[in-house]
Amino acid sequence: xxxxxxxxxxxxxxxxxxxxxxxxIVFFFWPxxxxxxxxxxxxxxxxxxxxxVGLQNFGVLFHDQNYLRSFQITAMFxxxxxxxxxxxxxxxxxxxxxxxxxxxxxxxxxxxxxxxAPAVAGVLWAFLFAPSVGIVTYALRRAxxxxxxxxxxxxxxxxxxxxxxxxxxxxxxxxxxxxxxxIPRSLIEAAxxxxxxxxxxxxxxxxxxxxPTTFFLLVVNIVYAFFETFGVIDAxxxxxxxxxxxxxxxxxxxxxxxxxxxxxxxxxxxxLMIIVVALTVVQFRFVERKVQx
Amino acid sequence: xxxxxxxxxxxxxxxxxxxxxxxxxxxxxxxxxALNDRLNDIANGFNSSQKEYKIVPVxxxxxxxxxxxxxxxxxxxxxxxxxxxxxxGTATMMAAKGAIKPVYQMMKEAGEPFDAKAYLPxxxxxYTDSKGNMLSMPFNSSTTVFYVxxxxxxxxxxxxxxxxxxxxxATAAAKLKASGQQCVYTxxxxxxxxxxxxxxxxxxxxxxxxxxxxxxxxxxxxxxxQHVKHIEMLADFAKKGLxxxxxxxxxxxxxxxxxxxxxxxxxxxxxxNIRRNAKFDFSVNFLPYHDEIKGAPQNSIIGGATLWVMNGxxxxxxxGITKFFSYLSTTPVxxxxxxxxxxxxxxxxxxxxxxxxxxxEKVPGADIAVRQLSNKTxxxxxxxxxxxxxxxxxxxxEEEMEAVFAGKKEAKPAMDEAVRxxxxxxxxxxxxxxT
Lengths: 293, 435
Description:
Largest interface: A-B, 37 and 40 residues
Largest sheet of chain A: 2 strands, antiparallel
CATH superfamily of the largest domain in chain B: Periplasmic binding protein-like II
Radius of gyration of chain A: 23 Å
CATH architecture of chain A: Orthogonal Bundle
Helix content of chain B: 40-55%
Mean pLDDT of chain B: 91
Number of domains of chain B: 2
Shape of chain B: globular
Distance between the termini of chain B: 64 Å
Strand content of chain B: 5-15%
CATH class of chain A: Mainly Alpha
CATH superfamily of chain A: MetI-like
Low-confidence stretches of chain B: none
CATH class of the largest domain in chain B: Alpha Beta
Mean pLDDT of chain A: 89
Structural class of chain A: mainly alpha
Oligomer: heterodimer
Shape of chain A: globular
Number of helices of chain B: 20
Structural class of chain B: alpha/beta
C-alpha cells in the first residue's frame, strides 16, 4: 500500500515549489537558453555587433582537430578523476569506519580539502610540483625521474588529475562514510560468524549495500570532472603543454571569459551540455539497474 | 537631538555636497602589489594638484580579468572612464568603435595641447592607427631583453660579456653546459620573445597588412624560412640540453635569479625582481640576433598596457581625463614612475631627464629596454602588431611551439599549423567586427 499525502488546495503545492523553480529558472534555465541562443551568433567582445550565423560556430568547432582531440582528453581526464576519486575515497571511508580511537580526528582531517577552493588547490599543487622550484620535483629529480610537466603532456595530465581528485575525495568520503554507517552491524557480524573474511564481507555485503551511494557519487563526480575542474586546470597548466590538458570546459572558460569569444564559447557549452545530459541518461538507464536500493 | 549634533549633520551634508561637485573619474587597472602603490601615488598626485577632478583607481584583477569586467560593465551600461588594457587586447579595443573614445580625438575635442611625437615612437607606434593617430594613452611599457649570469659565464671560462648573435650564443651555451651548468638558457613569454620580438628584431613581418595595423584582413607570416630556422635552433638547443622550457608566462624568471639557469630572455620588467633576488653578478643586454638576416638588429616591440578611454561619458569628464593624461605625461611623473617600477619612460623628455640625472649609470642595464626599442626607426614590421582575438592566437602559437620543444613535432609543420589555426581565429574576428 502506498502512503500518499495529497494537497487539497489547487495552488498551494505550486506556491510551495515556486521559490525553487524560480531559482532554477533564473540561475539555470535562463543562462542555458541564452548560451543556446548565443551559440548561433557571432558577436564582438563589447556586444556592439551581433550577427546570426546559424550553425557556423559548431561547424568551426568540428573542423578543428584540436577540439576533437579535446574530447579524448576530456574522456580520459573524467574517467581518471571520477574513477580514482571514488576508489580512493571508498578505501579511506572503509578504513576510517573501522578506526576506534581518534576516529573523529581522522574523519575531520579527511574532510578538510573540500573546503579549499579549486583554484587554490590548483596553485598549491602547482607549487609543490613546479618544474623548477617544487619540493616534490626536487625529490623526484633525486630519485632519477625526469619531471618536467611544462613540456611533458602525460606528466601534466597526471598532475591535474591528482589535483582534481584530491579536491573531490573529501566529498566522496563523507557520503561513503555516511553510507557505511547506515549498514546494519548485524549483517556484517552474521557474515563474520558464518566465516566470511573481511574482503568477502566487503564485496558481498558492504559494496552492494553501498551501491546507491556509489551510483550517486558516480553521477556527481562525472559532472564535477566535466564542469568544475577548470579552476584547477587554469591554476596549474592553463591547458598546456601543447593542449595536453585542454579539457572541454577549460576551453569554454578560456574562449568565453579570457578571449571574449562569446559565440564560440557558447557553442562549446551547448555541446558540453548535450554530452552531460546524454551521460546522465545513460547512467540512469543502464548503470542504475545494477543498483540495489 | 542636540543642536550641536544637528549642526554637525548639516555641516557634513554641506561638505559632501561640495565634494559632489568634484568630477569623479573611474580608473580600472591591473597593477598589483608595489605597482599598485606607485599607481595610487600618481592618482593622488593628480588629485592634490587640482580640485575639479578626482581620479578613483580601482584594482580589477589581472589584465584579462579587468578587461572582461569592463566589457561586462559596458554591456550593462556602466563602464569605467579609463581602462588599462594589455597590449594583446589592443585589436579588440580598437575594433570596438562606439565603446571607446580615441585619445587623440578626446584631446582635440577638449582643446588640450597634445603632441603624439613627444612619446617614444616604439611605444606610441603600437597604439596608433595606420594614419598615425594615437588611440590610447601609453602607460606601462616594457620589452624583452636578454639577461646573463656573469658569474656562471666566468666559471665556464667565458669573459663575462654577453653573446651578441645566436652563433656566439651557441658557443657560449656549449661552454656553460660543459662547465656543469644544469640549465643553460630559459625564456619567459615564448611567443612574445621568440615569435613577436624575433620578427621585429629581424625586421620580418609577423603578419600581412603591417602586422595587422592596416586592416583586420591580415594573415600570419610566422612560418617563413627564418622563423622556422629560429624555432628549429631552439628545438635543437632543447635536445642538446642547452635550452630548458619553463612555461608560457614568467616562470622562467625565478629559474634565472635562483642561479639555476645561466641565461634568460624575458620582460625588461623583471629587472627589479632579479636585482632584488640574484646573489650573483648579472648583466642586461640586447636580444641576440641572427647576423645572416639582413637588417638585423632592427628594434624590439613593447608589451605592457595602455589606458583606453571609454565612450559615452560627459564632456566635463573627458575634460578631466585629458587633464589627467597631460599630468601623467609630465616629465617628473614619468621619471618617478619609470624609476620606481622599471617600466620604460614613455616620453622622450623623461628618458632624457633620466639620462641627465645619471640614473642609468647608477642602475646599469635599466636603459637597455629603451635603447633596444629605439635602436632604429620602427618599420612596418617592427612598429607593433594588432591581431584580433590575439589572446587565443598567441595561445595557438605557444601550443605549437611547445610541441616542437617537446620533440613531438618538426618546426616547419608546427609553424605551418600555427599559422593555419591562428588565421582561422583572425577570420572569426574579422567576421565579428565587420563594419
